[in-house]
Each structure stands twice: as structure tokens, then as C-alpha cells.
Amino acid sequence: MEVHHISAAPLTIDRVEEIITRRIPLALSDDARARIARCREYLDHKMTSQKEPIYGITTGFGSLCDISISSDQLSTLQRNLVMSHSCSLGERVPSEIVRLMLLTKIQSLSYGNSGVQTATVERLVEMYNRSILPLVYQQGSLGASGDLAPLANLSLPLLGLGEVEMDGKIIPSSQMLEAMGWEPITLKCKEGLALLNGTQFMSSYALWCVIQSRRLSRWADKIGALSLDAFDGRIEPFMPQIQQVRPHRGQIETGRAVMEYLKGSELIARPKKHVQDPYSFRCIPQVHGASKDTLAYVAAAIETEINSVTDNPTIFPDEDLVISAGNFHGEPIAQPMDFLAVALCELSNISERRIFKLIAGVRGLPSFLVANPGVNSGFMIPQYAAASIVSQSKGLCWPASCDSIPSSQGQEDHVSMGANAATKLYRVVCNTRRVLAIELFNAAQALEFRRPLRTSPVLEEMVADFRRVVPFIENDTVMYPNINAAEDFIINYPV
User: Fold this and answer.
1) How many CA atoms lie within 13 A of 145 on its CB side?
2) Can you give the pTM of this predicted structure?
3) b/e for 326-350, b at 16 or more Cβ within 10 A?
4) Beta strand 321-323 with 314-316: parallel, antiparallel or unpaired?
5) What CATH number labels 205-492?
6) Which CATH superfamily includes the segment(s) 4-198?
7) How far is it, in rounded angstroms, from Cα 6 to Cα 112?
8) For position 183, what pLDDT does the model report?
9) Domain extent listing, the chain
10) How many CB atoms lie within 10 A of CB 14?
11) Least confident stretch, 32-36, 44-48, 72-76, 491-495
12) Which residue numbers are catalytic?
């Protein structure tokens, strides 16, 4: 059986996708185990001689940093921290993102700068491998001082507290420990803070969104190509000569992709009566391309983040240093996540405009894409739905990262709101996928009115597969199951 060994080797987004998709189990590498043990050993030794206060280890937290904690209360301090900070609320975090939270937290702790016990990290690995997923909720993090509230909820099961999803059921963590024959973890000094003080909530959302956005970017090109052909559009705006004189990488990639998708199409090759297409077709390389460039920038930032130590204080055993600093601050990924929301929203924004054009009753297509409009409303309201979703996404694109509310009696006086950026981005990704599903539904319908002419072999194959789950609409029918089926098609079909 393939196992992914957690190590100092960079964890790429592609590898994360592979681990998650194929359910590859995790294990700590020997070097990771050695780093963790070395740091813990150093900290234990340090505590025997340390006279100066160390934030969060021998002091309280936040504005309580000036209160010293006696040696016999250090473990209680860490346990109390996890319990008191477990304030995540609202909707549950999706299971696939909780799984990423476990993975990224394990990766961050493995570098040996956090002072945790090997047993603590091993327990997280076991929970991941056995799909024991803590119940975590979406609200409560300010995105600075780490994702304290949601990471506290993630950590509660280590103590036998909170709840988990196990074998498809929600059960108390105490029951999970009993079923597994595990004892609760007794936290040592610094451990609670190491578990809570990090960016794994927002970075896991960001990871999931980047992975999905890459797929949606490819889908936008493929569906846009189908819409262009069904609309009787022109190929010239996608030719390499155009992209070469404005050589943005994403624009070049988009032009090339659409040209490839339309290779061999009878429709694209036939003479055109119109000189130009509307912007939503003609400017696909520029708009889709800009979103690709944004996605590349965001992916690089997120990849850096998941290979980082983000708790505080940070321990450097070899240098005999324990430094209190700000690696927990979410700003380095909060801004990129806000940016990615804009990029994804634009993919849906231009998609909705193509939907609008396909139902407009122009270029030989019937009004609302039905043979007998009037008695049939056809595809009138799917466009309404797309417009509604796009409008919602536009509202969600207001940047969370430009907000800040001081907390902890003013000690934490600037926060990133990166967690809010993350959960908003998640909704924009889902919205964009839904709008693209509506465009695919419309474009496949429009294509049938061009018969017997055919689009390219690759698009004909996709449409044939699509028709196995979504039929051609001859007369009015209940539409939402077809839209849901189109979205499922986008989720599951290779692109």
C-alpha cells in the first residue's frame, strides 16, 4: 500500500490533491519524528533552567501575557486553552476540508519548531488515516493569533472532548477513544498553543478552493468553446497571433485551449455572416486568462503557507531560541484568497453573459432554446438562476482582508479576517461551478439546433456523455434536477 511520509520535502498542491483523492494514508518519516522529538526534548530541558517568562508557555495568552503560570499548572494551562477557545460556530466545516486541516496541521507540526510531543502528532495521523474527523464549524476565527476557535474544535478529540464523525456517525470523542482503545492526550507545556496557533483552517479552505478552481478554469474554457460553437462564433480571437502581441501567460493558455477544443469542428469552420462576436465570446482569452494568472499567483502563496510553521512562539533548538512573533497572522493568504474570489466570480460573470446570448433568439437559435417558445418557456429561468448566483458572488467578493477588529483587550489590534475570506471564497467557488453547469446545460441544448453540423470530436464526445445524464429538452419540464445533474457532471467528469 502506498503511504505518504510527512517530511521536510515540500508538499505541493498536486500532491495534496493526489493524497486526498486517492485516500493515501499518512505516516511520519524518520526525520520528521526526530525533529519533533528533538524540539520537545529541548523545550523540556529549557523549562528546568528558564527564569525569564516565555509567552504562552509560562504565561497566560493574549492580553494575559503578563501573568506568570506556576510549573505545576503548565499542563492545565494548555488543556484550559483548548477548552476555552473551542468557540467555532455556525455551519459545519465540510468533511473534505476537515481532512485537509488534519493534513496541514500534521505537516506544520512536523518541522520541529512547535514543541509538541511525538505522540500528539501521531494521534492526529491516526485520526486522519482512520477518517475520524472532528466536528469543526465555520465561524469564530479572526485569522490572526491563528485560527484559534476552529483549531480548538479540531483539537478537542485529542483530549476526549467535543465530537467526531466516525463511520458516518457523529459521536462524542470520549466514545471514539473508548472504541479505539486510546487514552486522552495529556498536553505538555506549549502543546495547546501549538495546536491552536496556526493558519490551518483558512489554508485548508484555500487549498480546497485552489484545487477546485484549477478544474473550473479548465471547464470554463471547454464550456466556453462549446458555447462559442453553438452560438456560431468566430475562431480568430483565439488565434496565437493575437495572444503573442499581448503575451499574458493565462491569455496564451486560454487561446491555445479553446483552439484545441474546437479542432475539427464543422461549425467553427463554416463561413460567418457576422464580423464580430459579443465580448463574452470574443474576450474569453483575456478574461479567462486573467483568472488563470490570478489562480497561479494564489496557488504559489498557498503552497508556501502549507509548508510553513505558523504557530507562536517558534522554537529553534539548534540556536537555543524561543521567539514570540507573528507567523500566525493570516494576511499572506487572506489577500490572495480575496483576489481568487474575484477571479472565480469573473469566470461566472462572463459565463452568465454567454448564457444570456444563447437564449436571445439570435443567429438562428430559437428564443429560449426551445422549438416552440410561447407555450414553452424553455431555458428562460435557468438564466435568471445564473444571474442571481452571479450577483450573490459579486457581493461575496467584498474583501474580508481589508477589515480588522481589535481583540484581546487591544493586544491583538490588527487581524486578517482570513477565515472569513476563506469561507466566502468557498461559496464563490461553489457558485461558479453552478453557473458553469447552467452554461453547459444551455450550450448542449443550443448545439442540437445546429444539426446535422457537428462540433469538434472532443466536444461531441463530452456532449454525448452529458446526454446520458441530462436529456435534450423538447417541451417544458422540471428543470432543477437537470441543473443539479449538470453540476454533478462537472464535479465527476474528467477535464
Assistant:
1) 25
2) 0.95
3) ebbbbbbbbbbbbbbbbbbbbbbbb
4) antiparallel
5) 1.20.200.10
6) Fumarase/aspartase (N-terminal domain) (1.10.275.10)
7) 12
8) 97
9) 4-198, 205-492
10) 12
11) 72-76
12) 55
